[in-house]
Amino acid sequence: MDEAKTDGFKPNIVAIVCNWCTYIAADTAGVARMKYSPYVRIVRVMCSGRVDPQMVLWAFRHGADGVLICGCHPGDCHYKEGNYKAYRRYILLKRMVKQMGIDERRLRLEWISAGEAPRVKEVFNSFAEEIRSLGPLKLPVEAGSHE
Amino acid sequence: MVDEPRIGVYVCHCGRNIAGVVNVAEVAEYASKLPGVVVARDYMFMCSQGGQQLIQDDIRKYRLNRIVVASCSPNLHEKTFRRAAKGAGLNPYNVHMANIREQVAWVTEDPEEATEKAKALVRGAVERVKHHEPLEEKKVPVKDKVLIVGAGIAGISAALVCANAGKTVYLVEKEPSIGGMMARFDKTFPTLDCASCILTPKMNEVASHPNIKLLTYSEVVDVEGYVGNFKVKIRKKPRYIKEDLCIGCGDCVEACVFKNPRFYPKPDEWSLGLKRRKPIYIPFPQAVPRVAVIDPEACVYLKYGKCAQTCVKACSRNAIDFTQKEEIIDVEVGAIILATGYKTLDLRKLPQYGYGKYPNVYSAPEVEVLLNASGPTGGEVVLRDGRKPESIAIIHCVGSRDEKYKKYCSRICCMAALKLAHLLHERTGAEIYEFYIDMRAFGKGYEEFYRRVAGEGVHLIRGKVSEITDAALTPEEEGKLIVRVEDTLAGAIRRIPVDMVVLMPALEPAVGSRELAKLFGVSVDENSWFMERHPKLAPVASLTDGVFLAGCAQGPKDIPDSVMQAEGAAGQALALIDKGYVELEPNIAYVDEEKCSGCRICVGLCPFGAIEFDEERGKARIVEALCKGCGTCAASCPSAAIQQNLFKDQQVMAEIKGVLAAMRGG
């Protein structure tokens, strides 16, 4: 974090997280006043299975240097198996972003259960640090509307 | 966009909680310049009457049609602000919240960064809410029955409240008798009243209550549906005894071919292995239902197909039925209460205390059984070698408050240890040594109880025991167990020889509670206890609507707290059922038929079978009643023909774009 300040690069990170696990854990991390990287912006969906690959590409296109997807641990999905679907899409998506010339490390999937507040801090910090070390993505930012 | 957005943005100070870190005025100022925003304000407490009034006045004054509230987590106050908007004539789903307390102010050190992050989240919310549309909540009738899982004191208490309110209760217990852990206790702290005198009447009331369907020796195997409308499958294991015929006389047990207690085939579950039992048994004298059980793993006939079947001959009611099969029972309920309790830590994980190595090291639950008048010794305290102990060490915090095992305090052990000290002294006259880290006497009457027991001559030694050993250094230590401890009050390392050691083990969630959590879709916390919706404001609700928590399943608790939570959970279940209907969050998916190409990718993906394919029209269709709103189908549709209300592509993507635009300084 401090290093990020010194070299002036503040990464733009979007975390698309599941309502039932990571979002709760992030709230709990707040209640416990855990401090973590301020560059991760949480966008809530009901399930990691809701994460359309287009959302991830959209985020990169609109200036994200890294995208994090967080869901429930395998077997713990509130909707039985949405996280497995997220995982399958993620594997393909990683290959796809690579073909587009985006370092695949800029996309990460993590399982964080509702009880794992310390892991929110850990994952957010380590991802922010990774993106910081990778530097800005420098895609030409699309100015157009998304409709 | 549905209509021209006229957005009001409300940034909450939350006292100093948000405003102490985030520059709320700056955030409001920033928001006021965003396109579509008509008015942006900051206010001390948005959730207060005044804050809500402010929103309502603005809606009327500025003809606002979208509201963004930047405050705490939507899990806390989304309903509040939706209701406020509704009160001013706005559709409640045109409100969106930016979580700038839990996810900004409380987790960010640098005020500048926090302010920037808050701006980003507000911008995301503003962009998102532009795409919101009025939605109708779906009202669904609620089944007026309750399922309670676990029939210890918590489950029993909850069942009686619900049943007395006239509701049908299915009370499921996996053991052959109800009663749980409390049925093993002789006395309870701090009143020292007889546990079975207070528990047995409740157990009998459960058995005879016309509204309670008691399903013992049963387990929940499947749960479907949603709040108000759960479909539950329960597997009832065969007892090989016809429950309606058995009167619990025990003649069959007496007659069983096993005669010598030393050769009984199984350790007795109720007395925690302190004695052995026959293949046919009644769990304990006060068991409810008082019906015998045959253990198929131990019964000679069920195992080998050959036996004199003396039990069958002895039964005057012809209640024994070796052909009994397991039964699957389907029930439909509106609310569920989980009261599955706890187990104690496996003491073999702490080899330094010699449990399992030295026969005279006991776990606290074993001593409870030993003290119990219905126990293997009839309440007489005799050691495994037949001696009466003359000195006893009781060790607190075994595995609790310990980085290596459980970091948390198990809450009940201090008082239970004092109770055991009192009872053991009373029964044996032995010298009692208690080893504690801190004495936690927090409840009503507990401090008084501590003083009472301390006054009875118990030696209270403050220090964490390092080891129990039988390696004697002096003749007095010969044949004894030696407790090695640093007495932190005396400032000395001590060795105390005793005849008996009682370990107060940490509590942990009951066996199978992880699987149950998955089955019921409830979350667990870092220690695998079922997680409550909010530690203070929703301590009996789970994160899943319609599923409530009671007793130790949610965390270590003593009996008064377990009963309190159970009655609270029963109250919540009744409130849900008596309303008659639930309003479901309208976040379900729908198909835009114009765009649907009929590829059927979505059909196979839905985990709830909620997508039908209309062959005639060649289109997919969502069955609203089955859709749970996960959005997996919406994410998979190659034509973007499926959308999920409240999480439409446009809405989520607008939010993503919004948070990123703000980060770029836009």
Task: Pick out its properties.
heterodimer; A: 147 residues; alpha/beta; Rossmann fold; 4-stranded parallel sheet; globular; disordered N terminus; B: 666 residues; FAD/NAD(P)-binding domain; 5-stranded parallel sheet; 36 strands; 28% helix; 24% strand
Question: What does this protein look like?
Answer:
The complex is a heterodimer of chains A (147) and B (666). Chain A has 147 residues and is an alpha/beta fold. Chain A has a single domain, classed as Lumazine/riboflavin synthase (Rossmann fold, 3-Layer(aba) Sandwich), CATH 3.40.50.960. Chain A has five helices and four strands; from the N terminus they run αβαβαβαβα. In chain A, helix 4 links the parallel strand 3 (66-71) and strand 4 (107-111). The longest helix of chain A is centred in the middle third of the chain and has 18 residues, at 82-99. Residues 1-6 of chain A have low confidence and may be disordered. Chain B is of the alpha/beta class and 666 residues long. Among the domains of chain B are: 7-135, Rossmann fold (3-Layer(aba) Sandwich); 251-314, no CATH class; 343-508, FAD/NAD(P)-binding domain (3-Layer(bba) Sandwich); 589-644, Alpha-Beta Plaits, CATH 3.30.70.20. Chain B is 28% helix and 24% strand. Chain B is built from 18 helices and 36 strands. In chain B, strand 3, helix 3 and strand 4 form a beta-alpha-beta unit. In chain B, helix 6 (153-164) packs across helix 7, helix 6 runs parallel beside helix 15 and helix 11 packs across helix 12. The radius of gyration of chain B is 31 Å and the shape is globular. The mean pLDDT of chain B is 95. Classes of the chains: A alpha/beta (147), B alpha/beta (666).
